[in-house]
Amino acid sequence: MSLEMKRADDWLEDAAYNRAYDELDKVMAELQVRPGDERQALLPLLAHPNIQVRLDAAIATLTLSAAATEAMQGIASLGYCSQAFSAKRMLRAIEEGTWKPT
């Protein structure tokens, strides 16, 4: 789903991006409610070569590992791609206290 989001973002296909996002959101919610919070299975994806996969894994695991924050900071430093912008915005919101990862 993250790979589809990246592809859709590259081609400015908002509807495809939103569909993939909605599906990813459902999967993340399911992983979170499973015994032991199965989002930890996503931690290896923090090193994935695709920036959208890394971003989504970091967002999903922010409460589970400091490595997720480091990955998010690394993405934020990459410049002006949409993923870097999203990472910067989320890090700022966490810092300001306007968003709390769950």
UniProtKB/TrEMBL annotation:
InterPro entries: ARM-type_fold, DUF2019, PI3K_accessory_sf. It comes from the Bacteria. Gene3D superfamilies: Phosphatidylinositol 3-kinase, accessory domain (PIK). It holds the Pfam family DUF2019. Residues 1-94 form the DUF2019 domain. This is DUF2019 domain-containing protein. It comes from Azorhizobium caulinodans (strain ATCC 43989 / DSM 5975 / JCM 20966 / LMG 6465 / NBRC 14845 / NCIMB 13405 / ORS 571).
